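On clarity, I found the account of how folds are encoded harder to follow than it need be. An entry of this sort, consisting of the sequence and the corresponding C-alpha cells, reads as follows:
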Amino acid sequence: MLFSKKEYQDRLKKTQQSMQEKGLELLISQDTNNINYLTGYDAWSFYYAQCVIVHVNLEEPLCFVRAQDAGGAYIKTYLKKENIIVYDEKYIHTWPMHPYDSLVNLIKERKWDKLNIGVEMDSHYFTAYSYEKLKKGLPNANITDSERLINWVRFLKSEAEINLMKGAAKISENAMKVAMESINPGIRQCDAVAEIQRALFRGTPEIGGEYASIAVLLPTGKGTSASHLTATDEKFVNGEATVVELSGVNKRYHCPMARTLHLGKPEQKKIDAMKATNEALNEGISAAKPGNTADDVAQKFWGVLDKYNIKKESRTGYSIGIGYPPDWGEHTLNISKGDKTTLKPNACFHMIAVMQFGDWGVEASESVRITDKGSELFCNFPKDLHIK
C-alpha cells in the first residue's frame, strides 16, 4: 500500500463532502487517475471499462474491474476484498454486451438505481457507449456530470504526494541531462530518445522510474513551430533547434520539464525569444503565491510578452500530480487569463511556455509548488537556450 490507510480515508471523506455539496449520492469515475487516487489501484488495464464507485455514506469505495485484473486490484488497493467488484470476461468486446451492463446490475442489486448519480462526462475512457448503458439501464436515476469533482479533490497535495513529486523531479533532471548529451548532429532522433527513456526508467540510485503518461516530445527544426511532436528516425542537423519535453515518474506522480537545445550557433532572434520566454516564465512564477489566482500568474506572464510584442494564444500552465496515459494534466487549474482559481499551499502546476513563430519556436517550463509564503520549483536545471 503506497499511502497510509488514513490518507486514503481522508481522500474519500473529502470526496464525499464535495458530493454532499453537489447533491450527489453516488459517484462513478472511470478516470484512471481518480481510481488510483481513491483506491491505490495501478495497472495498465484502463483500455477496458473500469471505475471507482463512491457512495456518499460508505466507509470504502468500490473498485470495479474485469475478472482478469482482479488479482491486480487485490494486490494494489487498500480495499477489503468484498469492495473489489469483478465483472465477467463475457463482457469484453462482445457488443452489444458491455461491462457497464454488469455495473447497472450491481447498482440495481444495491438499490442505488434511484439515486442522484454523478459521472465524468469528459473523462478519458468514459465512452458514449458507457454513458448510454447507464442512462438506459437506470431510467429512474438522476445522472449528471460531476464536473471533475475528484480531480478538484486531488488539486491540493499531501506531504506524502509532494515527496513523491520531488523524487520524480530528480528523475526529470537526470533525463534532461542525458537528453542534452545525446542530441548531436548526425544522431537519429529515435536513438536519442532511447537514451532518454533509459534514463527515465533507471531513475536515481534511490528511486526507480516508470512509464510516463506522455511520450518524450521532441519537436526539431521546423517542428519546433508545432506542439506534441515525437521522435522519428530522422537525424539531427547542425543549425537547428530541438525542444525536449519529458517527465520523470515516481509511483505515478509526474514532474514535467521542457528545455530547448540548439546545435551550432543560433540566430539572434532565437536567443532573444528564449530570453523573453524565460523572463515571462520567471515573472509569472513570481506571482504564484497563496491567495493569488491563476489569472494573476497569467497576467504577469503575458505582461512580459506584451512588452516584447510577442503573441501567444494557448494557455501557459495546468495542474499536475498523478498521471496515466494519455496525459499528465489534472484537468482543473489553467494558467490562463480569466482563470480565477485561488492558489493555496501544495497546489502544483506545470507552467510551460510554448512559443511559436511561423516555422520555428522555443520552449521552456517549470513544475511549480505553492508553499505557505510563495512558491518553489521542483526541478533544478538551467532553462537558458542550451547551445552545442
Observations:
- The mean pLDDT is 97.
- Residues 159-182 form the longest helix (24 residues).
- The chain is about 35% helix and 25% strand.
- The chain has two domains: 5-153, 159-387.
